[in-house]
Fold this sequence. Notes:
The protein is of the alpha+beta class.
Amino acid sequence: MTLYYLDDLAPGQHFKGNARARVEENAIKAFAREFDPQPFHLDNEAARDSLFGSLAASGWHTAALTMRLLVDCEPKLAGGIIGAGFDELRWPLPVRPGDELRVELEVLEVRPSRSKPTQGLVKLRTTTLNQHDQPVQVSVGNLVVPRRPAQ
């Protein structure tokens, strides 16, 4: 496993995650019961009469699955995935029971810190795709990434 430091990253780099997450109906409902108890996430009949037309996972469930996929895929960032906030978070399509999710990453910006020379910020676009290669979540986040230690 390769660890990526700030110095290893450059705008324009692309990474395709190899991890997959299958979304089951019972998991959609369990997440919704605890964190987003709206009828279209909990009940198939209520979901049919909603904007979604059928059961849909909470966007926050999609975000949690995306985080898991990020932890399980390359690049492995030195120091872990340490968020410093999002510039963008969208859910262009709902996640449905049976969907299989994966992530693709694009490095947008790399900025060494002026006040903390041992680290910097990486702006990263993360696209979560379903099995049809349709984006179900797109986020642009800022991560704190350590610089490579001096030898």
